[in-house]
Amino acid sequence: MTDKVYEFWYNDCIHESAAGCMSLHKTKKGAEIAMEFHKEQKRKDFEEVYAKHTPASPFGTHEAWGVSEREILE
């Protein structure tokens, strides 16, 4: 039996950057919850910055979030 964890990853600029691990979780559901919490915080930050302005792009256009299964090796 192989052990595994679920990685929540985030890329703040899909055109110029690579994704980074934000957190590791025992369950896929835990990683998905962490991802949604992070995404919602980013949405709030975006709306606060652009509250008085029209953004050039909709929220999340240049960002990416995801969950990946990772095997734990010895």
Distance between the termini: 13 Å
Q: pLDDT under 50 segments (min length 5)?
A: none
Could you say which overall geometry the principal axes of the C-alpha atoms support?
A: elongated
Give me the strand/helix succession: EEHE
Instruction: Count the beta strands.
Output: 3
**How much strand content do the residues show?**
25-35%
Structural class: alpha+beta
User: Order of strands in the sheet with the most strands?
Assistant: 2-1-3
Helix content: 25-40%
Tally of helical runs: 1
The main β sheet shows up as: 3 strands, antiparallel
Give the domain tally.
1
Radius of gyration: 15 Å
Keyphrases for this structure?
alpha+beta, three-stranded antiparallel β-sheet, 3 strands, 30% strand
Walk me through what this model shows.
- The chain is an alpha+beta fold and 74 residues long.
- It has one domain.
- It has 1 helix and 3 strands; from the N terminus they run E-E-H-E.
- It has one helix at 28-49; strands spanning 4-11, 20-25, 64-71.
- A 3-stranded antiparallel β-sheet has the order 2-1-3, covered by helices on one side.
- A hairpin with an 8-residue loop joins strand 1 (4-11) and strand 2.
- The chain is elongated.
- It starts with a strand and ends with a strand.
Quick recap:
This protein is α+β, with helices and mostly antiparallel strands and 74 residues long. It has one helix at residues 28-49; strands at 4-11, 20-25, 64-71.
Topology:
Layout lengths: L3 E8 L8 E6 L2 H22 L14 E8 L3
Antiparallel strand pairs: 1-2, 1-3
